[in-house]
Design brief:
By secondary structure, the chain is of the alpha/beta class. The chain has 27 helices and 29 strands.
Length: about 750
């Protein structure tokens, strides 16, 4: 389904082909610099493992025209390699460079470019089929901006109105190039690409907002010119805006006046979701849309491409015609200014090896992220006619417990998810807060006016909302993470009831009699029970015959940035070391006395606690100069904190809840490959006792931290290897696939008389 349209494959690879002369006067030939010019056949073969058969390449006008003559021999190897392997090449003709004798502002520029486009089309006509894809001028807006700031060295580079006049001239050239190509290949498709950006005001001054909105609008100016919507004297018309490409990186969102980036890796709350930006472009132009360049630098490449895939699918579900996603670059590239600096942005890094100075080295986390992204796009391509799961959860979707988010974000490949959070009481009026955090997932938070009488009251107050929900979802699967939501079952007439038991309801601090009674009733009503620890499984198996243990897993792609010790969170930067860290809910289950003893025993250590303070007063927590409460931060930012810790802490009180719990952060810590010290949690000791240190009391806990900090390098490496082996055996995807299978089997059993018992 995703392969329909102008491209052979939805997933594509681009190769950095800039051929301009940089500001320092150094001519660039990026395809030669990274060896792609010489190794096109090999590079294309590498794509086979990912099913990629569409690539974006650049010819390089400056490279092929000399003294008015064209020599296209530099692209012959790529043309023949593509033919041999069945690869579709989408060609860019002007990629920042043009012949040195040519003034871009002169009357000769447009006809010279049209002549070049005609010659290129004539050369490529035998190889491209009836509808090849061409990009006459790559990034008109970016190129004109680059000319205005002196990024490119060319004739008349100090032109007073470079940004405006260059854009108009490049638009005219693109239009003339389209006509020249169509004269040769009438069925050719034209792809016009430019960066997709989000620009905001840095303060609340109305003038700042007007300035930011004006800058934001500039990104559409070239598209509007091509389509004839503005400056009609340039010759634009709707036919020229055939296919649209938007180039999107993590740096594409910033403050207008300051230029400060809205950092993706820190999950800046002011960032605009990519799917909204894509839908805006679709609604504005109604053309097929390619994410023509996207990628990330250094660590985080895998999670970036997976998130881009999710956002693209959400845009598709909202009607946007997303034709594909192009990884850019496929092969790493050196910097335009410093050729000795490589960006580490490709699916394959380029590394010198004994027998190969430009060996292609696959980046494992990027490859894993891409495979997950491809799995996502394959399964999320058709959101219609799938069953619904209504979830009643006491855990916020964006909360510190990631198990629900991972389960339902992954199982949404098979179901439409309606995730109902515990209602919030005390609102002035009843209303529903709705969000769509990932494909096929809707999160509902009910704000209700009624007062809270007891622990179950918020759920009872949600009855009117749930009745409305039932009207749109007939006989759904109902999934509960808390027994307290049990009264809502009757309103939904569920086709199947699932209970995911993550914590012991009889834990101290809870309404024990009510919780115990409610869970007994839920176990009687449930058709299927899941638990996240062996202890919870064993106790529930005495009351139910379909109980299955699914330990929480870990998203290794998400936590890969924690392995890059050059990463870090700016809030943590001023804190000295060594740092011993914890993230999660700071609640009654965290042993504050233990933290105080740890801080007092070693004033030179710094204890970093990341997470919300819940169910307890902040004043009850120990206050020391070397204990740092950094507050709640999103899951996106956790690896940045983890990268800066020497030891990871699990300072949980060993109460009724703790004895049977299996906190998900233990595997996340392992993914960061840092020593872990925990209190005496029996579940953790049984599961991971060979890789985490256990302190049975305060003295042992402090001693374990001392030992962890003193580990010799060889032992650290051996410990990291054991942790890697553990986390590689876990997978949220395979776990939710198994859950999906159990749901299907249970539904079949319930449908057969005599098998329900």
């Amino acid at each position: 389904m995703l392969n329909d349209g102008p491209f052979l494959t939805y997933w594509q690879s681009g190769y950095e082909g800039a051929d301009h002369i940089n500001h320092n006067g150094m001519p660039l030939d990026m395809n030669t610099a990274n060896g792609h010019q010489q190794r096109a056949l090999e590079d294309y073969r590498l794509l086979k493992q990912f099913g990629i058969r569409t690539v974006r390449e650049s010819i390089g006008w400056r490279l092929v025209e000399k003294d008015g003559q064209f020599d296209f021999s530099i692209i012959e190897a790529r043309v023949h390699a593509a033919k041999e392997l069945g690869i579709q090449i989408c060609w860019s003709l002007l990629h920042y460079g043009w012949p040195q004798d040519l003034d871009v502002y002169s009357d000769q520029f447009v006809p010279r470019f049209a002549r070049y486009c005609r010659a290129a089309a004539e050369f490529l006509q035998p190889f491209g089929g009836p509808a090849p894809v061409f990009s006459p001028v790559n990034e008109i807006s970016f190129t004109s901006w680059g000319m205005s700031v002196g990024m490119f060295r060319h004739a008349n580079m100090d032109h007073e109105r470079a940004r405006r006049d260059a854009k108009r001239q490049l638009v005219k050239a693109a239009i003339a190039g389209c006509d020249a190509i169509w004269d040769v290949i009438p069925g050719a498709r034209m792809l016009h690409c430019d960066p997709l950006v989000h620009i905001i005001a840095h303060d609340n001054d109305p003038a700042s907002h007007v300035h930011a909105e004006g800058m934001q609008e500039l990104q559409f100016e070239a598209f509007d010119m091509l389509a004839g919507r503005r400056d009609p004297e340039l010759g634009g018309a709707p036919r020229y805006l055939d296919l649209m490409g938007v180039n999107y990186y993590d740096t594409n969102q910033w403050e207008a006046a300051t230029g400060h980036r809205l950092w993706w890796h820190l999950d800046d709350a002011r960032r605009r979701p990519l799917h909204q930006m894509l839908v805006e472009v679709h609604e504005r132009y109604g053309r097929p849309l390619l994410l023509a360049e996207t990628g990330h630098v250094g660590s985080g490449r895998g999670i970036w491409i997976r998130e881009v895939a999710e956002q693209a699918m959400m845009a598709r579900h909202r009607g946007a015609d997303i034709a594909g996603i192009c990884l850019y670059p496929g092969i790493d590239r050196p910097d335009w200014v410093n050729p000795d600096h490589w960006h580490h942005s490709g699916m394959w890094d380029v590394a010198a090896q004994a027998d190969d100075p430009q060996a292609r080295v696959l980046v494992p986390a990027y490859a894993q992220g891409l495979r997950q992204a491809q799995l996502l796009t394959d399964h999320f391509s058709d959101p219609t006619a799938i069953p619904t799961i209504v979830v009643f959860s006491h855990i916020r979707w964006q909360g510190v417990n990631t198990r629900p988010r991972q389960i339902f974000g992954n199982i949404a490949r098979y179901y439409k998810i309606m995730y109902v959070e515990e209602p919030v009481a005390g609102a002035a009026i009843d209303y529903t807060e709705t969000s769509h955090p990932s494909p096929n997932v809707t999160v509902l938070r009910y704000h209700v006016t009624g007062p809270v009488q007891d622990a179950g009251a918020p759920w009872a107050l949600a009855q009117p909302f749930v009745r409305d929900l039932a009207e749109d979802n007939r006989h759904p699967i109902v999934w509960l993470t808390t027994p307290m939501a049990l009264p809502l079952l009757a309103s939904l007439a569920p086709g199947l009831v699932v209970y995911d038991c993550m914590v012991e309801p009889a834990a101290p601090g809870k309404a024990q009699p009510a919780a115990i009674d409610q869970e007994a009733a839920l176990l009687a009503a449930a058709d299927l029970v899941f638990t996240n620890s062996p202890g919870l499984h064993d106790t529930r198996a005495n009351s139910h015959h379909r109980v299955h243990y699914f330990a929480s897993s870990v998203d290794t792609v998400h936590f890969e940035p924690a392995l890059d010790r050059s990463n870090g969170h700016p809030l943590q930067a001023p804190i000295g070391g060594p740092r011993l860290g914890f993230y999660g809910a700071i609640d009654e289950h965290v042993d504050g006395d233990l933290l105080a003893a740890l801080a007092d025993a070693h004033p030179e250590w710094h204890i970093v606690l990341v997470g919300p303070i819940v169910n307890i007063a902040a004043s009850s927590l120990p206050q020391r100069g070397n204990i740092h409460y950094l507050g709640p931060h999103s899951y996106q930012a956790w690896p940045q904190f983890l990268a800066g810790w020497e030891v990871c802490l699990m300072p949980y009180a060993v109460d009724a809840a703790g004895r049977l719990s299996n906190p998900s952060n233990v595997l996340e810590y392992m993914a960061g490959e840092r020593p872990i010290v925990s209190t005496a949690n029996p579940e953790l000791k049984a599961l991971y006792g060979d890789v985490i240190s256990i302190g049975r009391d305060r003295k042992e806990f402090i001693a374990a931290c001392e030992h962890a900090l003193a580990l010799p390098q060889a032992q650290r490496h051996a410990l990291a290897a054991r942790m890697r082996a553990i986390v590689m055996q876990t997978s949220w995807v395979s776990m939710t696939d198994a859950m999906h299978t159990l749901i299907a089997v249970t539904q079949q059993q319930l449908a057969v008389p005599g098998m329900a018992a």
